[in-house]
Amino acid sequence: MPLITSQHPLLKKRFFSGTLSLLLFVGSFFFGLIFPLNASFASTPSLSEPQADSPLERVKLQLSAEHRFQFAGYYAAQMKGFYEQEGLNVEIIPNSGSQNATQTIIEGQADFAISDISLLLDPNRQKLINIVAPIFQHSHQALFSLKHQDLDSIYQLNYKKVALFSEEPNALTLLLMFKELKIKPNLIRNRHFLDISQINKTQSPAFGGSLSSLIHQQFQRHKKERLQLNRFLPQHYGVDLYGDMLLTSNLKMQSNPAQVQAFKRASLKGWEYALEHPTKVIHYIQSYLNPNLTFEGLRKEAEAVRNSIDLVNFPLGHFDAGRLQYAQNLLKAHGFIHNSKNFENNWLADETNPKQFTPKEIEWMQNHKQVQVAVDAHWAPLEFINEQGQFVGIAPKFLDYISHKTGIEFIPFTQLSWSESVTQMESGKLDMYSAVFYTDERSEYSLYTDPYLELPMVIATQRNEGFISNLNQLQNKTIAVVKDYASQANMQQHFPDIPLKLVSSPEEGLKLVSSGEAFGYIDNSAIITYYINKHHYTHLQISGETPFRSGIHMAVRKNWPELQSIINKVIENMPHAVRNDITDPWLKIAYPSMINWKTITWIITPILFIVLLTSYYNLRLKRINRDFKEAQQQLEETNRSLSGLSVTDHLTGIYNRKHLDKVITQEIERAQRYGQEFSIILIDLDYFKQVNDTHGHLVGDEVLITFSAWVNTIIRSSDTFGRWGGEEFLIICPNTTCEQAYHLAEKVCVGIRLQSFPKSINQTVSIGVSEFLKGQNSEQVLENVDHALYRAKQNGRNRVVMA
Q1: Angle ∠(506,511,513) on CA atoms, nearest 5
Q2: With 0-12 CB in 10 A as exposed, 13-18 as middle and 19+ as buried, what is 154?
Q3: pLDDT digits (tens, 9 = 90+) for 572-597
């Protein structure tokens, strides 16, 4: 297998009247006056990006197997230049099976390596190893069986043959699973590489090993038929251990910690890219690293890798020392090791490492199973009691998440008013606030967490009020605020001359504004927007922002710093997707247009004059237009007919090659100008000459017509479908990646077999798929897709092949 370094080559891929134009010009001028754009943009280089003249540090990464998608993140970091941005020149070394990955970093042959929990088998070796980041949150090992053997339960393997890798570490998770489930299989371990094509010779109903290796054996190029397999995963049976982990030596961590952190940042960034763009990494692997792997196999492996990484439940690279301790205890309980070791701080290479609970925090959680929470039952959408009497909103969802991660039960005291809640927090009868703004007064008796939500503090007024750019404009105007809210404290401290009207809830405050008893009401934008929409206060608007701090915090009692730290860590670890799922349903805020119509009347008047003048001339032109209307309609009808004849195929009624050539040229120009992607699908009806020879050309024409009509029903309205020539057809898919086009092609390839053709003909198709690469012309694009179609035919037809 080739080595890859950061120097490796990369795979690149009608008019308006003069009057209307004048109106548009004036309108543009009008909007430019009212809505000036004051945005400025600055480009800041990455702190980790090396200077142009800085030499790159040479780094070696030892893989645990040959090149495949199992290591896609590291390849992506190479091909996208993430390592170079961190000042690293990385050499990625495949493993033929003879190297012990952890030993290579201990002996200094590599700087980083990939391994799994098998490193726990040697306590002396584990002392010299530092875990940089666990990439696979679940083991990448699996047990397979042939479906025709009717093995539908793992418990049926008791005393039956099971073929595994010959070296114990390579199947450690599977062995632990057998031990935990008290299953005693007859293990066959007489070879290092497991070849499932020979499985019947061993008479083994099951075989196990790396998911990646087994998937690729299932999709070997020489296989005419895919083996149908059952899959058994250890985590489904209670043995959920780490899979691939990124390791370095303690010596490397102590001597060059900055390099370790740089390598970790770039690698995690590479994994993010690989999981978002698997097809691009697959093409890279096939083109430069391991051409023997099939696209189908790599795509299946990518799915398995995504499941092992499990971004749904874990942040990328998440480390939990408890899971490692659990694995060690499991190994000891089943006799794999005799002594367990404590995990010291140097086991995890992390820049900040505040995301892991300390022993003191774990002890605190064990001793505090319940926490009493001061809440505001009327502060929607942050937290409130709905019509069904349920405590709902953004804050309760955050509490639920924290509870799930820590085991702490948060008990909201919803029967208290907000003032009563504040009093009980001050006296220590309640333990924490779930959603508050920061105030100096509250900080005397509580510890604030980091803000988990940022919202602007705004002022709501009647709609006829102008935009408020400064709160000094509110002198001698009554402003409503909720008693004991941060808005009260902030207003009294910074704007003491503005009279305040204290209310018990946001609803009461907005009612006062609605009735005219108060000029405005101050609160955060989410609260105000929610109640304006709920009560249909269409005569109210948000008229301006305040200068106050707008972070939403939790706050705990002063003597519970452990809980403050625990909450901070859980929220810091919260995946962005989870945070968005919590906040997005509530925070759809739309600011009304704040325009002083009195100021712009003088601008509108000339526009209205121009409109009236234009209308007068249009009335005069109507008479002339009426005389030409019939002739114009006839001309348009003729033009449509001629236009249709020029771009459509006379037999099928779909577009012809001339039009397809034009669309391809247009798509290339669009792609080059705007950076948009598009793909092409070339379809050939298999053995169509035999249809014509056997049934005659009329029947052949019916097949072409039927096929064309059917395809037109399954493509998107944005796609262009036409007859390329004879029995070849072309689909142009704008804004479509090669992988997306591949799915459409598969739909055509599979769906045609279910269509009814004359004479009961069973028609199949061969399909090539190609994506436009930057710099290509139309001939090169078509050459690529034609080459893919040729491969589809050469490989047996009735299939889809990507270029």
Answers
A1: 100
A2: buried
A3: 888 776 788 888 777 654 444 445 55
Q: Are 526 and 534 in contact (CB under 8 A)?
A: no
**At residue 631, what are phi and psi to the nearest 5 degrees?**
-65, -40
Encoded tokens for 173:
């998770």
Mention every residue, 6+ apart, whose C-beta is less than 8 A from residue 514: 462, 537, 539, 540
pLDDT at 634 over 80: no
Tens-digit pLDDT profile for residues 126-173: 667 888 999 999 988 888 877 766 677 788 888 888 877 654 456 888
Instruction: Give me the pLDDT at residue 637, please.
Output: 65
Q: Three-state SS for 290?
A: coil
Query: Distance between CA 637 and CA 181 in Å, rounded?
Result: 78
Buried/exposed code over 132-141 (b: 16+ C-beta within 10 A; e: otherwise): bbbbbbbbbb
Percent of the chain with pLDDT over 90: 37
Q: Where are the alpha helices (DSSP H) in 60-181?
A: 72-79, 82-85, 101-106, 123-126, 172-180
Cα 616 to Cα 609, 619, 626, distances in angstroms: 11, 5, 16
Decide if 688 contacts 703 (C-beta within 8 A).
yes
> What's the CA angle centered on 379, arms 563 and 538, to 5 degrees?
150
Residue in the structure block whose two tokens are 């004991």: 484
Task: Kindly report, residue by residue over 659-702, the tens digit of the pLDDT.
Answer: 999 999 999 988 888 888 999 999 999 999 999 999 998 899 99
Work out the average pLDDT over 276-287.
92
Which spans in 146-225 are helix H?
A: 172-180, 199-202, 211-218
In terms of Cα–Cα distance, which of 250, 242, 268, 244 is closest to 48? 268
Phi/psi at 159 (nearest 5 deg)? 65, 20
CA neighbor of 208 nearest in space, from 242, 173, 243: 173
Helix (H, G, I), strand (E, B) or coil at 602: helix
- Between residues 61 and 633, the one the model is more confident about: 61
- Measured distance CA(724)–CA(661) in Å, rounded: 9
Residue type, 132: V
Q: How many CB atoms lie within 10 A of CB 389?
A: 8
Could you tell me whether strands 540-545 and 457-462 are parallel, antiparallel, or unpaired per DSSP bridges?
A: antiparallel
Query: In 377-432, where does DSSP find H-type helix?
Result: 394-406, 418-426
Provide φ and ψ at 522, rounded to 5°: -110, 130
Residues 6 or more apart whose Cβ sits within 8 Å of residue 450: 553, 568, 571, 572
Q: How far apart are CA 555 and CA 564, in angstroms?
A: 7
CA 470 to chain centre: 40
CA dihedral 168, 174, 180, 181 (to 10 degrees): -130
φ, ψ dihedrals at 616, nearest 5°: -60, -45
d(CA 43, CA 150): 61
Q: pTM score, two decimals?
A: 0.43
| In contact, 61 and 99? CB cutoff 8 Å | no
For residue 725, the SS3 value is strand
Q: Are 59 and 91 in contact (CB under 8 A)?
A: yes
pLDDT for 290 beyond 70:
yes
Contact (CB, 8 A) for 129 and 250: yes
Question: Among 446, 409, 407, which residue's Cα sits nearest to residue 426?
Answer: 446
Give 524's strand partners.
457
The residues near 678 (Cβ < 8 Å, ≥ 6 apart) are: 667, 670, 671, 732, 733, 734, 735, 736, 771, 772
- In the chain, the amino acid numbered 651 is L
Question: HSE-up of 375 (CA within 13 Å, CB side)?
Answer: 27
Based on its alpha-carbon atoms, the radius of gyration of the chain, rounded to whole angstroms, reads: 34
Q: CA torsion 767→772→778→780, rounded to 10°?
A: -80
Q: Binning pLDDT at 50, 70 and 90, where does residue 5 land?
A: very low
Rounded Cα distance, 217 and 292, in Å: 11
Angle of helix 597-647 relative to helix 18-34, nearest 10 degrees, comes to 130
Copy the structure tokens of residue 199. Answer: 């499985």
